Amino acid sequence: MSKVNWKPGNMLYPLPVVMVSCAEENSRPNIITVAWAGTICSDPVMVSVSVRKERYSHDIIEKTGEFRI
What is the rounded distance in angstroms from the CA atom of residue 66 to the CA atom of residue 31? Predict the structure, then answer.
């Protein structure tokens, strides 16, 4: 069996689309649709989402360290 080299990229097609909600204390909740989401680990359960720095949600998630899918 020969070695296969994969190019960098997402191997899941179609990509899962998720709705991510986040909020700061004493602020209105925010929700965003995200097409870049994936499982990092199953024990403990961890997921990742990619949110552009230009998006309003990015700052909230970065400040609070929390989001919901």
Answer: 13
